[in-house]
Design a protein that fits this description.
216 residues; mainly alpha; 10 helices; 51% helix
Amino acid sequence: MNRQPLYVGVCTVLLLGCVAGRQYRLQGNEPGHDAVDWKATCMARGFSAYALLPAPVCRFEEPADPMLAELKSVFISEGVPVELVLLAELESGMDAAARSRMGAVGLFQLMAGTAGRFGLDLVGCDERIRPAQSARAAARYLKVLYARFHTWPLAIAAYNAGEARVSAVLQSCNAHSYGEIAHALPAETRSYVPRALALTGCREGALVATLPPPRG
């Protein structure tokens, strides 16, 4: 059974919902911005399924968030696409002190094991609640995930569901892409990944699947 149309349909609904009821501007209609042929770009880069999605070129007119700028600076220094900083919005609602029932803490909802793996101090003051430290650990983790799975959608799925689970599903489905395995992942991840794609599309005008690989 081809699961790709279902995956595209979910992303389309989320993107449309992201735009609905809010003021935005289209890059191609603003001075200094060139209109982008979204479908042609997707097709040329081998992402035909994404060509069916509305072009994510809407950028909301919202006040600059100083913390967001700080997080982006960290991601730049780590060589990770800055658009992925918005995972913090999905993970914690940009609440640096957020704590989950499962023990995840901070903007990027890092578990203790992951935080320790990437150098955060959990003794005394838990560094997961510090925005810059949390962002650096999250960026380094995303680099590891991309190196393992070779696409950002799969890396994002693994950030949510865990590396071992995504690897096992890819193997059991004899698959190589998120669209091929979405149906076999937990419901939370099936919701999480399209929301990440929609959020980065609406807020950053970015197609996650075509973001460059990490540097360094």
